[in-house]
Design brief:
The protein has 273 residues and is mostly beta strands.
């Protein structure tokens, strides 16, 4: 499927104490890049059953969308516009950020990757939980968190706020949420899941501005252009110089890969090699 964001000449600036229009903005107060707002359009497959996930196919219930169309949930929301949308090549869920800095999510939710407080799939966008969007979750008030960037992995989601902190939800089996893993290796088929967004308490003082996700790992870019990663290291995709491989059992060969549950800066390599 594909997501599109139409554009209008509405520019939003977030500061620590309020939202400002173009006329009110000053160079010193701007803390995130200018964003252009618009409506969300969608086209493609709307349900896993239509792409071979199961043998039960009912296209009359979840018909494919052949041309970019506005999401019906928002048809009557004239004042609701979005500045950012994201999904992923391995993801079957989507997220969007509105002009008030609130994060919306919908799609597959087997591991709580929508951050809606449960593991129920969502066919329509919902405001996520675990992030304080104001007293009435309306994005208003000085204490309301403003989300400015988001990314989707297969079973997890990352969101970055206007202060440079990041939140995560979904599966943390490989440490891809950037928070400590709570499950035991001795328990089979048990995953460490966070069904609401949790904020990372990383010891790094970096302020993050962008994120991207693989199947079970995450990469962040900070305000200085440095890259950090965490999650599954099996193929060296974290860029830390090794794959964290170890043998789980003495007397036999049973290889495993130690997860990296906290952000760690990419190791510098020889770019001229």
């Amino acid at each position: 499927f594909l997501l599109f964001l139409t554009q209008k000449q509405t520019r939003i600036y977030y500061t620590k104490d309020k939202k400002m229009t173009t006329e009110e903005k000053t160079k010193e107060e701007e803390i995130v890049p200018t964003k252009t707002a618009g409506a969300i359009l969608f086209c493609g497959c709307t349900d896993f059953k239509n792409v071979g996930r199961t043998k039960q196919i009912d296209e009359s219930v979840f018909a494919n969308v052949n041309v970019p169309s506005k999401i019906s949930t928002f048809e009557n929301e004239n004042d609701l516009e979005f500045t950012f949308i994201a999904s992923g090549s391995a993801a079957a869920h989507n997220v969007a950020i509105d002009t008030k800095g609130r994060l919306w999510a919908w799609g597959r939710n087997e591991n709580g990757q929508l951050g809606t407080g449960d593991k129920d799939n969502r066919n329509a966008p919902s405001v996520v939980k675990g992030i304080h969007f104001g007293e009435n979750a309306d994005g208003e008030g000085e204490e309301a968190v403003k989300i400015v960037w988001a990314a989707c992995g297969k079973n997890h989601t990352i969101a970055i706020d206007s202060e440079g902190g990041f939140y995560a939800c979904g599966s943390n089996k490989s440490g891809q949420l950037g928070v400590p893993i709570t499950w035991s290796r001795q328990k089979k088929n048990v995953d460490d899941e966070r069904v609401e967004f949790v904020k990372s308490a990383s010891a790094t003082q970096a302020k993050f501005v962008k994120a991207t996700c693989g199947v079970d790992f995450t990469v962040l870019t900070d305000a200085d252009g440095k890259m950090w990663s965490f999650g599954c290291p099996q193929y060296g995709q974290l860029g830390h110089g090794d794959d964290h491989e170890y043998n789980m059992k003495e007397g036999t060969v049973k290889l495993a890969y130690e997860p990296q549950p906290t952000p760690k800066m990419f190791r510098s390599g020889d770019l001229n090699a």
